[in-house]
TrEMBL record:
Gene3D superfamilies per record: NAD(P)-binding Rossmann-like Domain
This protein's name: Saccharopine dehydrogenase NADP binding domain-containing protein
Pfam families assigned to the protein according to its UniProt record, in alphabetical order: Sacchrp_dh_NADP
Source species, domain of life: Bacteria
Biological source species: Sphaerisporangium album
Sequence ranges assigned to domain Saccharopine dehydrogenase NADP binding in this UniProt record: 4-120
């Protein structure tokens, strides 16, 4: 049982992860819903055809791979059934979830995962890993801080093609907060509680260590939960350079998100968005960055950066390194985000550098 399965092996992330695994001498098994599309990208590796997330779960139970990498979003729909199949089949699991709801739901499975003896890693993509790693690094050996802000600044090269169903559904279906919260609202932690906050709020102009300038604004994704757990801070804000920070967009956003809260409207919008053709575009800057500012109750403040290359390439490198460590028996029973499990050195092993 040494097989590593990549669910969504034909996708942008699936192909990037497969390439990084091959570079480490691990031949992945590509899993997807179309035999011809799988063979076209498999480079001779084994493929498994399964027409839906449910069919993939059934194959996991039947064939019991060592580790499963799930790249089929939205993870609010695919993570829990796939994790249950992994626990039944004795497989470790990791995914690229970066929305609050999916990350929170998976981490909440921690006790049942721990009882099974398996390791589950969620948020193993750029956003969660890059920001959480800086928080873990800044908080190492210190008491819980009072306040944390994390910012993600991805530099993404765009490949020509359609946006695709998984990404479109994740964008429009994945923004909602955790169970019980209003859908399509922003979130922040205040006094230890997850509370509503405007998407695009708290804009900050950041000067990057290489001299570039970006504006980041509130965009509560999985990194909000990861930063809170990594620091123990009661007050946490998560922001992104991809968040809408212009006053006009921020004014329109509440209306647009209220409309998208209506299920048939959202499903129509997902289909239209999935078919949108994107043109090839070079990455906008040389580096992607994770950034954190941490403040302790005595007023001490520490700031740190993580510098890395193109963000999608790194989203291939992190899962491959996590898989390598899991196959080497370095995992622990339970559900984790990547740096919570492997510490700040994980990011360095994936080619990133800290600037603290
Ligand atoms: N955490 C991060 O930083 C990060 C970074 C990058 C991506 N992501 C997330 O990862 C996910 C994948 O992104 P991507 O850019 O790789 O997307 P993509 O290129 O569209 O690939 C999606 C893959 O999922 C498969 N798929 C889509 N819908 C499916 C369904 N209903 N049943 C079975 N398979 C299905 C596709 O297979 P077909 O070939 O059959 O269509 C394809 O292989 C998204 O949710 C995205 O948000 C997260």
């Amino acid at each position: 049982m040494t097989d590593v399965w990549i669910l969504g092996g034909t996708g942008r992330s699936g192909r990037a992860i497969a390439a990084q695994l091959r570079a480490q001498g691990i031949r992945p098994v590509l899993v997807g819903r179309d035999a011809a599309r799988l063979v076209a990208v498999a480079e001779g590796d084994r493929t498994v055809v399964a027409g839906s997330a449910e069919a993939m779960a059934a194959e996991i139970r039947r064939q019991r791979p060592a580790a499963v990498v799930n790249t089929v979003g939205p993870f609010t729909r695919t993570a829990t059934p796939t994790i249950r199949a992994c626990l039944d089949g004795g497989s470790d699991y990791l995914d690229l979830a970066n929305d609050l709801s999916a990350v929170a739901t998976t981490l909440a499975l921690g006790d049942s995962v721990a009882a099974s003896g398996r390791t589950v890693v969620t948020g193993a993509g750029f956003g969660v890993t890059a920001t959480e790693s800086v928080v873990v690094k800044l908080c190492e050996g210190r008491a819980a801080p009072e306040q944390v802000r994390v910012d993600m600044v991805p530099s993404l090269e765009t490949q020509a093609g359609v946006l695709g169903e998984a990404l479109a559904a994740t964008i429009l279906d994945g923004i909602p907060g955790v169970a019980g919260g209003g859908r399509f609202q922003g979130r922040r932690y205040r006094d230890g509680r997850l509370v509503a906050a405007p998407i695009g709020g708290d804009p900050v102009r950041l000067t990057l260590p290489d001299g570039g300038v970006v504006t980041t604004a509130g965009m509560p994704l999985g990194e909000l939960i990861a930063a809170q757990r990594a620091s123990g801070a009661p007050n946490v804000v998560a922001a992104s350079s991809e968040a809408p920070s212009s006053p006009v967009v921020r004014a329109i956003l509440p209306v647009a998100t209220a409309v998208l809260g209506i299920r048939p409207v959202r499903e129509f919008a997902i289909r239209r968005l999935a078919a949108v053709k994107v043109a090839a575009k070079p990455k906008p800057r040389e580096h992607s960055w994770g950034h954190a500012v941490v403040r302790w109750p005595d007023g001490t403040t520490r700031e740190g950066w993580l510098r890395l290359g193109e963000a999608q390439e790194w989203t291939g490198a992190v899962p491959a390194e996590v898989v390598r460590r899991l196959l080497a028996g370095e995992g622990k029973p339970g559900a984790f985000t990547p740096a919570a499990l492997f510490g700040p050195s994980l990011a360095q092993a994936c080619g990133a550098e800290y600037v603290v």
